[in-house]
Amino acid sequence: MARDEVKLLGIWQSPFTFRVKLALSFKGVEYEYVEEDILNKSPMLLQYNPMYKKVPVLVHNGKPIVESLIIMEYIDEIWKDHPLLPEDPLEKARYRFWAKFVDDKVNQI
Questions:
Q1: What string of DSSP letters covers 45-85?
Q2: C-beta neighbour count of 102 within 10 angstroms
Q3: pLDDT tens digit string along 17-53?
Q4: CA nearest to 11, candidates 74, 47, 53
Q5: By percentage, how much of the chain surpasses pLDDT 70?
């Protein structure tokens, strides 16, 4: 089987980028990290996230996934070892609630 090509576009100050980095590390996924200059957006960022032009962007085998919570779900579905969320649907819903709550609060800052 061919090795996955995984890149993460982000900025070091972003809690959303940090969240994705933690998930990839927890899952043991090797990836290339590309630090973005948010004031001078790279052609790669604009290509992979033309709608929002924001980080983080996970690029898996040339296909981009955007928005940190969506990226987290994708990571959990693609790399099955070490699940990020519990199996129980109610517990999973609680985790998702708190993740969204934190996102909403961070976005207000």
A1: HHHH-TTT--S-EEEETTEEEESHHHHHHHHHHHS-SS-SS
A2: 13
A3: 999 999 999 999 999 999 999 899 999 999 999 999 9
A4: 53
A5: 98
